[in-house]
Design a protein that fits this description.
globular; 2 domains; seven-stranded antiparallel sheet; Thrombin, subunit H; mainly beta; six-stranded antiparallel barrel; 3 helices; single chain
């Protein structure tokens, strides 16, 4: 469970506030969010929607509007130490960071992954953070293979994997393991009573391409 590490992201949004002479006050608005991910080797893996803020909700009486956030920058950190972004892909819902030396000394590990074919009924486990209450170990079995993205919340690629157990807010970004203790995917979404994870190969491939490997 030591590989699961919580993060904090600060999004700096351009301000809509005006000065007395109707000019922008140039003061960025900060949004702070916490999320889940895991360290494998010297990299930190999670899903993009955990560490990126693209929209905000404006509530006025009974009316709720969803509007885009005009971001100036985002900083994702662990223990208040910023991570080096390798890839942050909204369309694929993949986020990969490199740990700086001071964090690597504490968190870097020899955790391995597996891209072996998965099977219906295969037993797996994941370490989530349901409703941000802390690390929780849960067993599950694979219930569906190659799920279309329209059925898993519309995130990322077709071909996600459905579990026979639930996932809730806070579980996104959690690692999914086979019974050999190897990472096989990353928790991504929930639809109905089923949790979904994205196979780890998408994170490895995307991270290596962006890193120039």
């Amino acid at each position: 469970m030591d590989a699961v590490v919580f993060n904090r992201t600060i999004t700096y949004e351009k301000s809509d506030n005006k000065t007395s002479d109707n000019k922008s006050d140039n003061k960025a608005v900060e949004y702070k969010t916490n999320g889940t991910g895991f360290v494998m080797g010297d990299k930190y893996y999670t899903v993009d929607h955990v560490v990126s803020k693209y929209e905000k909700m404006l509530v006025s009486g009974a009316l709720t509007l969803v509007v885009p956030v005009e971001r100036e920058k985002e900083i994702t950190s662990i223990d208040d130490i910023p991570l080096e972004e390798i890839v942050n892909d909204r369309n694929a819902d993949v986020a990969v960071f490199r740990l700086p030396k001071e964090l690597c000394a504490k968190y870097c590990n020899d955790l391995a992954y597996s891209t072996e074919p998965l099977e219906i009924g295969q037993q797996v486990y994941f370490i989530g953070n349901p409703n941000n209450t802390g690390k929780v170990f849960r067993m599950a079995r694979i219930g569906r293979l190659n799920v279309p993205k329209e059925m898993n919340g519309g995130h990322g690629y077709d071909g996600d994997i459905g579990l026979d157990t639930y996932a809730v807010m806070g579980d996104s970004g959690s690692p999914v393991f086979n019974m050999k203790g190897r990472v096989i995917g990353v928790m991504q979404a929930v639809a109905g009573t089923m949790g979904y994870f994205k196979p780890i190969k998408h994170f490895i491939e995307t991270g290596n391409i962006e890193a120039g490997k």
